[in-house]
Design goal:
Number of domains: 2
Bound molecules: ligand NPW, adenosine-5'-diphosphate, potassium ion
Distance between the termini: 17 Å
Helix content: 40-55%
CATH architecture of the largest domain: 3-Layer(aba) Sandwich
CATH topology of the largest domain: UDP-N-acetylmuramoyl-L-alanine:D-glutamate ligase
Structural class: alpha/beta
CATH class of the largest domain: Alpha Beta
Shape: elongated
Number of strands: 17
Strand content: 15-25%
Oligomer: single chain
């Protein structure tokens, strides 16, 4: 699977194993990396007046020396600017020795209009904030709006976290090797990379396979095989039943958005569980979605006794407090959840906030043997209410935070935002990169919660259901585009579901 995402440390390990396995040695891989960069530069900028190749002291610089040599050999005008000398005897020193151009000191870097910058200063080895001559080079490229081709990563972007250390190049395109790194997908790194092109430099799939990678880009390849399809002899309850808890009379819309989304995602039957005082307003707005009165845990217990497969959504518009906690814990089931046919609980919005001062009760119940699967869908604010120490730890990336939160809470975590991360308690994680800002509209999260529940109710495992829902939700938002409101999203899922059904 080529959607594995490797940390810089994992990439370095892949590099070592590839060299050991052959056929390429270190300089062989580096030459291929330089070749990939030079080919792309010529293809994208055939009329460039000059290529300015900026080389750092490490292997990223080594790739740059290789690219500069090939561009020069192809007849292009090339200026080579270097900072620091490569370690003698290393691959980068070999690449520098093979390059016939004389490097100038980066301190004197100048570049006019019509020229292209190739940034091979720092890549996976970025170890401190960009400063001095490197920062000045960033300023020049930015001020003059020069196209930048980044080698592996734009210098200044952390490959682990996507964060900027000091300052960073804004690349038009980034050429990376073998697999993407978290910094290509997490923000702001993703935006600074521009287009990301993956080059095959000879690190084989077998080598990557040996590393047992647990981080992925969230693409359909990750979950498509298990995407639910109704059997010919199914019936509506066998397709899965979703129950969505409604808020009070002035806050019912969010639950109905979730309910509709769950139905579109393929749940055979969907019921809004409404407080008595909101029955009328819910009834006035529901057609295919069913409605049932639930005011207390005793009534809820009767629903939970039903053994047909079901998933629950609790949180959208629900209100914060003890009732939310009692209902959520009852659904999780204290060892009874799965036996009762409860496939899972999607805890969103107010459902999450309700546990701000009582996280242990939620985490213990979710971790109990036989509990229903818990999926939580916090945005940044909700995440920090439940996981304040993780949220405030600047040494952790968003990927690290989601992963640790999932392990701590025994829940699949959907840590939302423009770079949503999905993480499972077993350590698997996926970074989502197909969302568009049109999704930042009220009620959009309610729809996502409903899609997750719709897939859970159909028996999809929680991590895969969460990944599929996030991808579908993002794709629906991106394909709809301007003018999107949350009500549009369930309908916008339809063509995507159709093409998934046709392609499996
Ligand atoms: N792995 C693979 O499969 C392949 C990898 N390849 C390439 O190797 C690259 C990784 O190479 P790398 O490990 O040598 O690290 P790299 O990014 O060159 O930086 C290290 C040097 O920079 C320095 N330094 C760092 N930050 C700094 C700063 N802000 N300001 C100043 N100095 C700073 C740092 O200093 P130190 O931390 O030691 O003090 C050290 O000297 C990778 O991105 C890819 O392009 C390909 O060749 C093909 C196969
Ligand atoms: N700038 C953005 N780009 C892409 N997706 C976004 C952006 N902002 C928000 N989203 C997505 O939109 C949804 C918003 O959910 P949420 O914050 O819970 O809103 P609401 O509570 O109004 O439903 C999430 O799925 C989130 O990932
Ligand atoms: K770089």
């Amino acid at each position: 699977m080529s959607n594995e995402v490797l940390s810089p440390a994992e990439m370095a390990e892949a590099d070592r194993r590839a060299i050991a396995a052959g056929p390429f040695d270190g300089i062989g891989l580096m030459r291929r990396a330089g070749q990939a960069v030079a080919s792309l530069a010529l293809a994208r900028h055939p009329a460039a007046e000059r290529f300015h190749v900026l080389c750092g002291p490490g292997n990223n610089g080594g790739d740059g020396y290789g690219a500069a040599r090939l561009l020069h050999e192809s007849g292009a005008a090339v200026s080579l600017w270097a900072v620091g000398a490569p370690r003698p005897g290393g691959d980068a020193a070999l690449a520098a020795a093979e390059c016939p151009l004389t490097p100038q000191a980066l301190a004197g870097f100048e570049a006019g209009p019509g020229t292209v910058v190739i940034d091979a200063l720092y890549g996976a080895g970025l170890s401190k904030p960009l400063a001095g001559d490197a920062a000045r080079a960033v300023d020049i490229a930015t001020e003059r709006k020069l196209p930048v081709i980044a080698v592996d990563l734009p210098s200044g972007v952390s490959g682990d976290s996507g964060r900027v250390l000091g300052c960073a190049f804004q690349a038009e395109v980034t050429v990376t090797f073998a697999r993407k790194k978290p910094g290509h997908l997490l923000l702001p790194g993703r935006q600074l990379c521009g287009e990301v092109v993956l080059a095959d430099i000879g690190i084989g799939d077998a080598v990557i396979g040996e590393l047992r990678i647990k981080t992925f880009e969230n693409t359909p390849a990750l979950w498509q095989a298990g995407f639910p399809r109704p059997a010919a002899d199914t019936h509506k309850y066998r397709r899965g039943h979703v129950n969505v808890f409604s808020g009070g009379p002035s806050a019912t819309g969010a639950a109905r958005l979730s309910a509709l989304a769950a139905a579109r995602a393929g749940a055979g039957a969907v019921t809004v569980l409404s407080p008595g005082n909101a029955m009328q307003v819910n009834a006035a707005h529901l057609t295919s979605i069913m409605l049932r009165k639930v005011d207390d845990t005793a009534t809820l217990a009767a629903i939970l006794d039903d053994s047909r497969p079901a998933a629950f959504v609790l949180g959208p518009g629900f209100g914060v407090g003890e009732k939310a906690r009692d209902f959520a814990l009852a659904v999780l089931g204290d060892g009874q959840g799965r036996q009762n046919g409860v496939e899972g609980l999607v805890l969103d919005a107010d459902g999450i906030t309700s546990f701000e001062d009582h996280p242990a009760s939620l985490f213990i119940t979710a971790g109990a043997k036989g509990a229903a699967k818990l999926v939580m869908t916090p945005h940044e604010g909700e995440f920090s209410r439940l996981f304040s120490s993780l949220a405030g730890d600047d040494s952790l990336s968003k990927l690290d935070k989601a992963r640790k939160a999932a392990a701590r809470s025994h829940a699949v975590m959907i840590y939302k935002g423009a770079d949503t991360v999905i993480a499972a308690p077993d350590g698997r994680a996926a970074i989502n990169a197909n969302a568009a800002p049109w999704l930042a509209t009220a009620g959009s999260g309610d729809v996502l919660a409903g899609v997750v529940a719709g897939l859970l109710a159909q028996g999809m495992p929680a991590f895969e259901a969460a990944c599929a829902a996030v991808w579908l939700h993002a794709e629906a938002g991106s394909s709809f585009g301007p003018g999107l409101i949350a009500e549009d999203l369930p309908q916008a899922l339809v063509p995507l579901l159709r093409s998934l059904a046709n392609s499996t």
